[in-house]
Specification:
Length: 463
C-alpha cells in the first residue's frame, strides 16, 4: 500500500507484491530462511496473498490519483472564484482584460498577450511578462498579430501546439460567449506546450472573462439606452411644453399688433397703452423663457463657464428687481436693508437670473396684494438668501419635485399661461454650479420660502 503512494509507476506496486510474498515465504514458512515450501497448500496461499497485495496496491494507487485530482479541482475552483471576484470589481473592458491577463500570468507563470476588440477590430496588444527582461517585441510582431487576427476571424484556437500557425510563439484563443468574440488572448507555449489540465483551466478563465465583458457591455448598453430614453423624454416634454406655452403669448402679441395696425385710429390712448403693455409683457415673458432654455442647455452640457467676481449682495438684489415682471407693482416687495455691507463671490448675471426666477415664481402663484420678502444673512463660508411670500404655499407632495425640469405645482398661473417648469430647475443648476444649495420650506403661518446659498466674498486689499 505504501509503495504505490510514494511511487508513480504501477510496475513498482507489482514488484512490491511479489517481494512481499517471497519475504513471507522466506521468514515465516517451514523451512524458514529459504524459499522452499513443503506444504502443498502454500502455493495457493502465496497466490491469494499476491492477489490481495496487488489489489490493495492498486486501490491505494487509485486513491492517490483521486486525491491528486481532487486537489487540482479544489485549486482550480479557488482560482476561478478569485478570478470571478476580481473581474466583478473591474468597471471597464480594459480593466477586465488586464485582470484576466494578470490571473493567467499568476496561474501559468507564462507570458501573456491580450488583444481587446475595438469596433470589431483588434486593438493594440497588451503584453504581460513573467520577467521584465523578456523581449515584448517578440509578442507584438506581424506574425503574432496575424495569428491573433486569424483566431478573431475564425473563432478557433491557433498558434504554438496547434496545426494552424504552429511556428508562432503563443497559443491564441478567443475570448467568447457562443459566437460572440470579445477579444483574443495568447499564452507563451513555443518551448513547453500546455497539457490538457492547463488548457481546461485556461478555457475556464477565458470563459469567466468573456462573461464579465458581456455583462459590462450589457450594463453600458443599458445605461446608454436609459440616457437616450431620458433625452427623448426631455425632448418630448420640451416640445409639448413649447407647443402649449408659446401659443398664448404669441397669439396675444399677434392679435394686439394686428388690432393696432388695422384699427389703431379707433382706440383711445388708454386702450393703446394697455395693448402696448400687453405686447411688452408677452414679449418679455418669451425672452425670459428663451434665456432659461439656453441657460439650462448650457449648464446641463457643461458649456457654461462661471465668471466669478466679488459683489455686494444689495446691488445684486437691486439689479434683479429692476428686471422683475411689471405686475410686481401689484405686490408688496420688502427688501432687507441695513448698514452692514455683505460680499458674495458669484457670477452676478446668473445669480440675478436666479432671484428673478424665484420672485417671478412668487408673483405667478400668489394673489395680488401678497407680500414678498427678500432677506439674506451670513452663515459660515456662505451667504443665505431667502425669498418668502404669504401666498397659498406648496403642498408637501409637490415640494420634492419643484426643482425638477418641466414640473409645475399648479396647472394654471395668474395670467392663464402654463408654466414650463424651467425657472426653478435652472435655479438649482446655477446654485449647484456655485457649490451652494437651494431649498423650499413653508413660511409660517402661510406661504413659501425659497432659500439658496452662495459663497461669501472677502475684501481684497491692494497696496
Amino acid at each position: 500500500m505504501l509503495v504505490p503512494i510514494f511511487t508513480k509507476s504501477s510496475v513498482c506496486s507489482f514488484i512490491a507484491s511479489v517481494a512481499g510474498v517471497l519475504t513471507f515465504n522466506f521468514f515465516f514458512t517451514v523451512p524458514r530462511f529459504s524459499l522452499h515450501a513443503y506444504d502443498s497448500g502454500y502455493p495457493v496461499t502465496f497466490l491469494v496473498m499476491f492477489l490481495a497485495s496487488l489489489l490493495t496496491g492498486s486501490l491505494a494507487s487509485k486513491l492517490k490519483s483521486h486525491a491528486k485530482h481532487s486537489t487540482l479541482v479544489a485549486w482550480r475552483a479557488k482560482l476561478l472564484f478569485e478570478t470571478n471576484q476580481n473581474l466583478q470589481k473591474a468597471r471597464t473592458q480594459e480593466e477586465i482584460v488586464s485582470v484576466a491577463a494578470g490571473q493567467l500570468l499568476k496561474i501559468f507563470q507564462r507570458d501573456i498577450v491580450a488583444y481587446r476588440l475595438d469596433h470589431e477590430k483588434l486593438a493594440e496588444p497588451q503584453v504581460f511578462c513573467v520577467s521584465g527582461e523578456t523581449a515584448r517585441a517578440g509578442y507584438t510582431g506581424g506574425r503574432e498579430r496575424e495569428v491573433a487576427q486569424w483566431v478573431l476571424a475564425n473563432n478557433k484556437r491557433a498558434g504554438a501546439g496547434t496545426e494552424t500557425f504552429s511556428d508562432a510563439r503563443c497559443t491564441y484563443l478567443s475570448v467568447r460567449t457562443g459566437e460572440q468574440v470579445y477579444g483574443v488572448v495568447g499564452i507563451a507555449a513555443s518551448e513547453k506546450p500546455l497539457d490538457s489540465f492547463e488548457v481546461s483551466l485556461l478555457l475556464s478563465v477565458l470563459s469567466e472573462c468573456a462573461l464579465a465583458m458581456e455583462n459590462q457591455k450589457n450594463i453600458e448598453e443599458k445605461e446608454a439606452a436609459a440616457v437616450l430614453a431620458k433625452n427623448e423624454q426631455l425632448r418630448a416634454n420640451l416640445l409639448r411644453s413649447i407647443s402649449h406655452d408659446l401659443r398664448t403669448p404669441l397669439t396675444s402679441i399677434s392679435s394686439n399688433a394686428s388690432n393696432l395696425l388695422s384699427n389703431g385710429a379707433l382706440f383711445d390712448e388708454k386702450a393703446k397703452e394697455q395693448m402696448y403693455a400687453d405686447i411688452y409683457d408677452d414679449a418679455m415673458w418669451l425672452i425670459n423663457l428663451v434665456e432659461n432654455l439656453l441657460s439650462v442647455s448650457r449648464l446641463e452640457e457643461g458649456r457654461m463657464n462661471l465668471r466669478m467676481s466679488t459683489e455686494l449682495i444689495d446691488e445684486v438684489v437691486a439689479e434683479a428687481l429692476r428686471h422683475i415682471n411689471r405686475k410686481s407693482a401689484e405686490y408688496r416687495l420688502n427688501v432687507q436693508s441695513g448698514d452692514d455691507y455683505m460680499l458674495v463671490q458669484i457670477d452676478a448675471k446668473l445669480i440675478v437670473q436666479v432671484i428673478i426666477n424665484i420672485v417671478d415664481n412668487a408673483i405667478k402663484y400668489t394673489p395680488p396684494g401678497s407680500e414678498i420678502d427678500i432677506r439674506w444673512k451670513r452663515q459660515g463660508r456662505f451667504v443665505l438668501i431667502s425669498v418668502a411670500d404669504n401666498g397659498p404655499g406648496i403642498s408637501d407632495e409637490a415640494k420634492p419635485h419643484v426643482f425638477d425640469m418641466f414640473y409645475s405645482a399648479a396647472n394654471k398661473v395668474a395670467d392663464s399661461r402654463r408654466s414650463m417648469g424651467l425657472g426653478l430647475a435652472l435655479c438649482r443648476s446655477i446654485i449647484n454650479a456655485h457649490g451652494g444649495e437651494i431649498t423650499v420650506t413653508d413660511n409660517v403661518p402661510q406661504g413659501t420660502v425659497f432659500t439658496f446659498s452662495v459663497p461669501a466674498g472677502e475684501v481684497e486689499l491692494h497696496e
